# Entry
Amino acid sequence: MFYLLFVATLFVHVQSVPQNSSIVEYLPGFDGPLPFYLETGYIGVAKSEEVQLFYYFVKSESDPKKDPILLWISGGPGCSSFTGLVYEVGPLAFGQKAYNGSLPFLVSRPYSWTKFASIIFLDEPLNTGFSYATTSTGHNYTDLQACGQVYEFLRKWFINHPEFISNSFYVSGDSYAGITVPVMVQLISNALRFYIPFFSFNFNIYHEWKKYCFNLMAISFKGYSLGNPKTFPEEVNYKIPFCHGMGLISDELYESLKQTCKGEYLNIKSTHTPCSENLKIFKELVSGICDEQVLEPYCGTYSEEPKLCQSSSERRSLEENFIFLNRDDFIYRRISRVDTHNLSVYWANDPKVQEALHVRKGTIKRTWARCRQSIGDKSYAITFMNSIPYHTNLSTKGYRSLIYSGDHDMVVPFQSTQAWIKFLNYPIIDDWRPWMVDEQVGGYTRSYSNHMTYATVKGGGHTAPEDRPEESFHMFKRWISQQPL
# Structure
């Protein structure tokens, strides 16, 4: 009985004072106190904790003691989880109409997934967002090592937040997270196989309890979800049929491409073949299309040093470049996502913002970038680009999974995602049908015997929750509540 009381006392102590973290009640640019619980902090991983991973934690706005908890991983690699927090599934959004040199302001997001779940938004891998290394050796690592660091992060995060150990836990993300999340899930799965409840141990002091928990995962892991996930290198082959289906290329060019390239559009070595000539025409035809959302205006690509995208005439004011519609008191973007994403750069680099977020001074050597384009240089070694084997293995474990595709994404077309799911070769238990939101089609769905649900989000792009927040909200809420879409 003494040991049980001792451990319970430790739990209360750790819960009240999480290590290396702070509660954020106010944020520059947001009017008044935050209407939700926000915690930010660092957790040290790798050798001698030389890698310091930064996170944002938002408690469920419903019942955090019982609601599921998610780990959110953004893509890239090198995109800050702030992307998920403010642009996709979190409780905040930018309401700035046009950047005029002042601090962009923030508004509440009505379709935040934190309405029904707690979310850890993690800046990973190293050098992403506000995460940093304390030594020069810490900067050299592989993608697999980065996945291991996320696993170590989770172990330590739950030690600091033991009140969430019994909550259903999921790992979620989109884009390049489709490569790394299945690896992270596999690491969690491997740990759970060897888990023994810690109450079976006989220990006398806190450090012994802490040591055991560092090597165990007592969490209630249930599954994972991925949106428009990068999965295997040959996905580029599906861009051609996607663009043909969207009416971006002609029937004649499509047929000629199929005939001359034989369905293989990756790693074309010769530059003077009928295939390469057709590919050149194809690239010219789609060069003015926003590949992340083919319906949106094209405004170049993201830059770590952003510049405002102006119209071709440039006589129109910046204000005219932004068109917003009020819907449930939420401001929706109807202009280039590049301009909208740049607002995060202006906001997060403000010294008052970093102070409010409790960012450690001097740890960001360069300006904060929403997506660190240089993350894929020699310091971050990419060793694999195919996560299908991990999906294959996880399908045998009984975990639930939701794979969804914004159907207007040219980066990872829905055809490629459907192709690798079909490759898994599991029987269909709920065949292709529409799923509805407010008596309108939100997309289409199909379920498989390996507990995998696939769904399209009608009108969604590469980050479907950003383009279709209401539809994505209902889709994910139904799935995580184990209800049919």
Observations:
- Residues 22 and 428 are 46 Å apart (CA to CA).
- The chain is about 30% helix and 20% strand.
